[in-house]
Amino acid sequence: MSEPTDETSGESEPNNANLGENTEDKDTPETEPEHPEEVTGGDPAESAEPNAVENGPLTNLNDEETDRLMDQYIHYGEVAIETANQRVQMNRFFGLILTSILAGLFALARGNLTTTSAAIVLFASGFGSLICYFWYQSLQSYRRLNKARYAILNQIESALPVRMYLDEWRYLKREKPDPEIVEPRPDDDPDHRSHTIVEQWFVRLLAAGYLTVGGYAGGFILTPLLTSAGYSLPSPTTVGLIIGATVMAGSIGLFWTRS
C-alpha cells in the first residue's frame, strides 16, 4: 500500500514546483489553464482528509463548533457566488456599451473624415481604450478577490469530509479526488480554459479595436499638418490605414507578449 502513495507524491512534485510563479498579472499556458493557487488556494496533491488539519482554529472541533463552521462555510460560499454574479453583470454592462460604441466608431470612420469628425473619433477611441483599461483592472481585482476567498473556503473544507472546491479543480486537472468521488476526466476531453483568461482577451481585443480606429482617425489629422509643413504624404485614407494597421499589430503583439 505504501508504493502507490509514493507514486502519487512523486507525480505531484512538478506541480508543486510551479506554485511559486506569479500568475496574478499573466495568463497561464493552455496546458496549465489556471494556477492551482488561484482556484483553491492550495496544492491539488494535498490530502483532503479531515485529519489533515493539525493545528489552528479548525483543530479538534466539537459538534457545536462544527455546525457553526458549516453555517459560516455556507454563508461564505454564498458570498463568493454573489461576487461571481456581480462580475458577470459588470462584464455584460461594459461589453454591451463598449462593443456598441466601437461599432459606431467603425461606421463613422468609413471613407474620408473631416478634421472635426476625425478629432471626435480619436477622442472617443481614446476614451474607450481608457474604459477598457479600467475594466481589465477590475477583472484583475475580482481575480485576486476570488483567490483569497477560495483559499479560505479550501481551508475550511479541510475540516469537512469532502473538499468540493478542491476536488472540482482536481477533476478539471484530470486528477483523482481524495477521497475518490468521481473518476478523472477522460484524456480526450478538451483542456479546461480559465474564464478569467477569456474575459481578459475579450477586453484586450476591444482595446485593440479602439486603438486601431483611433490610429485611423489620427491619420486624417496628421496628414494635413505634415503636408502644410512641406512633407509629401499619400492621401489621408492611406495614412490612416497604415497607422491603424500598425497600431493594431503593435497592440495585439504587446498583449500577446504580456499574456
Automatic annotation (TrEMBL):
<dbReference type="Pfam" id="PF24838">
    <property type="entry name" value="8xMP"/>
</dbReference>
<feature type="transmembrane region" description="Helical">
    <location>
        <begin position="93"/>
        <end position="111"/>
    </location>
</feature>
<feature type="compositionally biased region" description="Acidic residues">
    <location>
        <begin position="1"/>
        <end position="10"/>
    </location>
</feature>
<dbReference type="InterPro" id="IPR056918">
    <property type="entry name" value="8xMP"/>
</dbReference>
<feature type="transmembrane region" description="Helical">
    <location>
        <begin position="201"/>
        <end position="226"/>
    </location>
</feature>
<keyword id="KW-1133">Transmembrane helix</keyword>
<keyword id="KW-0812">Transmembrane</keyword>
<feature type="region of interest" description="Disordered">
    <location>
        <begin position="1"/>
        <end position="63"/>
    </location>
</feature>
<feature type="transmembrane region" description="Helical">
    <location>
        <begin position="117"/>
        <end position="136"/>
    </location>
</feature>
<feature type="transmembrane region" description="Helical">
    <location>
        <begin position="238"/>
        <end position="257"/>
    </location>
</feature>
<keyword id="KW-0472">Membrane</keyword>
<protein>
    <recommendedName>
        <fullName>DUF202 domain-containing protein</fullName>
    </recommendedName>
</protein>
<feature type="compositionally biased region" description="Polar residues">
    <location>
        <begin position="11"/>
        <end position="20"/>
    </location>
</feature>
<feature type="compositionally biased region" description="Basic and acidic residues">
    <location>
        <begin position="23"/>
        <end position="38"/>
    </location>
</feature>
